[in-house]
Amino acid sequence: MSGTGLLTFGEALAVFSTQSGKLRHARTVDVGIAGSEAMVAIGVARLGAPAAWAGRLGADEPGAMVLLRLREEGVDTSAVRTDRQAPTGLMLKDFRNADVTRAAYYRNGSAGTRLCPEDIPEDRIRSAGVLHLSGLTPGLSDSAAKAAFAAAEVANDEGVPVSLDIDYSHALWYPEDAADILYDLVSLCDIVFAGDDAARLLGLDGDPQELAAGLAELGPEQVIVELGPRGAVAELHGSRYDVPHYPVRSVDTDGADDAFVAGYLAEFLAGASPDRRLRTAAACRAFALTVPGESTGLPDREELKTLTRTR
Predict the structure, then answer these.
(1) d(CA 141, CA 255)
(2) How far apart, in Å, are the Cα atoms of 168 and each of 196, 197, 202, 268, 269?
(3) Whether pLDDT at 259 is above 90
(4) CA distance 168 to 180
(5) Number of helical H runs and strand E runs in the chain
(6) How many domains does the chain have?
(7) Whole-model pTM above 0.90?
(8) Phi then psi for 99, rounded to 5 degrees?
(9) Which residue pairs, CB below 8 angstroms and at least 24 apart, start in 69-72?
(10) Among 117, 152, 165, 289, which lies 20 to 30 A Cα-Cα from 11?
(11) Residue 236 falls inside a structural domain
């Protein structure tokens, strides 16, 4: 491994959300940030590992807020590019209950959709311990897809492990468009996270263990299929694992999958055993479920001890 820290590359957005009810009835809103890769960076930083996020933001107040929030969390943003020709993307979110949230995205023509291979911080990739991507980024635009592949290829050339959360979104592209691109991207990765639906999007079939084995056959040595409240299954370095779900009172599922990824990658960077990586990932997901918001519930090491009783 050529480095010690996490580098993520992708889109980040400003979020305006209600605490309950429809946005039209709200008199005040919560202000925050979102974006799968950025949330993973925050999660890894809270667990004590170096983390950096790279991407493109507008030269506006939402973009300034994204940078401020990331820096407050200890995330390195020195590789972020400012786009003076496009705004930062926005998400408006209604929060009804743990099972019903509605999000409206305003990202057409945003800075994030203008990501391109020239935005790739090649020197930062070479010095990273792991590069993390998500399947959301290639769905933003053709140039963003090229950027994601360019980043993975630089990492492959330098021997830097590449992590991918497939994280397919029907709001960004059609399944038939996503399948071929994500299939090719998986083949460049060392670590892959996928929900069972995302694995089937790539043409795989069977039970979760068979899905994990199918993804591993595409090239990754570490595959984790997340199953929500049913836990997860994994195939790591040729061995199979069942990952239990920590029973908690779920308040908001947004950000839970990113928390899982962050927990796993933080332990991977620390050189932890496969079992430890998976237990920490499951615990981080459980914490994220207990409070509303994308990053609010991401735990630190002290909080993890209260659930896992591990040190």
Answers:
(1) 23
(2) 11, 9, 10, 24, 25
(3) yes
(4) 12
(5) 10, 13
(6) 1
(7) yes
(8) -105, -15
(9) 69/32, 69/33, 70/12, 70/33, 70/38, 70/41, 70/42
(10) 289
(11) yes
Count CB neighbours of 290 within 10 A. Answer: 16
| 3 state SS of 186 | helix
Q: What is the CATH number of the domain that holds 224?
A: 3.40.1190.20
Is 88 inside a domain boundary? no
Dist CA 310 CA 290 (whole Å): 20
Using the predicted structure, report yes or no on whether residue 205 has a pLDDT greater than 60.
yes
Q: Which residue has the tokens 């605490």?
A: 19
Amino acid at residue number 272 = A
On whether residue 200 sits in a domain, the answer given is yes
CA dist., res. 257 & res. 289, Å (int): 10
Q: How far apart are CA 197 and CA 211, in angstroms?
A: 10
Tokens of 81: 């590019």
Give the strand pairing for 6-10 and 13-17: unpaired
Residue 190 designated active-site? no
Instruction: Give the pLDDT mean for 261-277.
Output: 96
| Identity of the residue numbered 120 | I
**Domain contains 93:** no
Identified catalytic residue from 190, 252, 257, 258:
258
Per the structure, the complete domain to which residue 197 belongs is given by 6-10+36-60+77-82+116-308
